[in-house]
């Protein structure tokens, strides 16, 4: 594709020839191939311009950069204000603006994104329409899963997936939209059919520094730039604030406050539950927790907005299994084990309170850790939450990354005010210990990793699965 076409309507200054054929887009210098365009991105630690010479050596014929690079001959430089935003806009063009041929539903929030997108995509597919899925668990198109390694893929990869979805005749896409995706302009250049706000609790403050900035970033999604319709949670204080600010049409949902979609008469049924929506119809869920009632309400609002009828929605819920890595349950020697991705203070609190209800008079045992090189402020909060709700807590490792497991555990201990805990930093041994000390009827929550198939430590992702470890104990 000609460079001058890709630069049309892009605010930039060009140094060099624009009558070039661009054969590929890249933001990693090691992946650049002959005829490629390289985007020099300013990172949190490294200035992307340091990789430009490597990209040119590998075949880049054009470079997008935020400042002109001197003595770079034979290569066209495109100087822009924001290279990330430009990358998104050019990626849309390069792949033929595939998002314009899709109805895209975006879901943002700290917790619940994976569950909400999974519900919506499942029921749309159940209805006979085709809906792809993008999120923490990967990209799913026609039942085929592709691992991406991040909640919202980078723009070049994202547009490639959109193009593939168009080719495979998908009508809808339901995708998780992370705060980083908004901050880094990954979703610029296309619009959403609808967007959903689930909630906002402490997470990612290692990058955003404070809740105000984190919230303001999420808020950007709820504007005419990205959509004309939104679904908002009024049980969350930040959701109430968005509803006050919003200048587009929206529907609200709640299990506490007055809203367009509200739930009442919530009842646990085994490992699932049922509830009444707006006093009109009863929904049966195959997974428990008030937070999942809330997730279901948001999905119903979207599904009705796009035109699905009540019977299809209810039958779709009844046919749906729990989302991978979200409140997955199994019995080990008559002890109920729950595996969940909960990795924030609010997420851990919600899952433990739900598990406490299920346990009744029996004990609740919590196993969790915190990720390394991430928000350290949430560690003591999660320690306090676990030891105050669960009868016994086993503090273990999660993804240490480049921190020591012992140091992360010490941060967790800062919030603990009781002695109903122990430390076992080997996650496999921690799970085994929980099952060993549990008695018949007790409930065990294994939190933090969900369906993640690895432990990330010292730059190496070692194969690991909570569910696989639990299955070993069932033999």
Using only C-alpha atoms, the radius of gyration works out to 24 Å
The assigned structural class equals: alpha/beta
Largest sheet: 11 strands, mixed
According to CATH, the fold-level topology of the largest domain is: UDP-N-acetylmuramoyl-L-alanine:D-glutamate ligase
For the largest beta sheet, what order do the strands appear in spatially? 9-8-7-10-6-11-12-13-14-15-16
Low-confidence stretches: none
Give the helix proportion (percent range): 25-40%
Give the strand content: 15-25%
Count up the helices.
16
Label the CATH architecture of the largest domain. Answer: 3-Layer(aba) Sandwich
Number of strands: 24
What is the name of the CATH superfamily of the largest domain?
Mur-like, catalytic domain
What shape does the CA trace take?
globular
What is the CA-CA span between the terminal residues?
57 Å
* Nearest-integer average pLDDT: 93
How many domains? 3
SSE layout:
Elements: H1 3-6, E1 13-15, E2 24-26, E3 36-39, H2 52-57, E4 60-65, E5 76-79, H3 83-94, E6 103-108, H4 113-126, E7 131-135, E8 138-141, E9 144-146, H5 155-167, E10 172-176, H6 179-183, E11 194-197, H7 205-208, H8 211-219, E12 229-233, H9 237-245, E13 249-254, E14 261-269, E15 272-277, E16 281-285, H10 290-305, H11 310-318, E17 328-332, E18 335-340, H12 345-359, E19 364-368, H13 378-389, E20 392-395, H14 405-413, E21 421-423, H15 427-437, E22 443-447, E23 454-457, E24 460-463, H16 466-474
Parallel strand pairs: 2-3, 3-4, 4-5, 6-10, 6-11, 7-10, 11-12, 12-13, 13-14, 18-22, 19-20, 19-22, 20-21
Antiparallel strand pairs: 1-5, 7-8, 8-9, 14-15, 15-16, 17-18, 23-24
Helix pairs in contact: 4-10, 4-11, 12-13, 13-14, 15-16
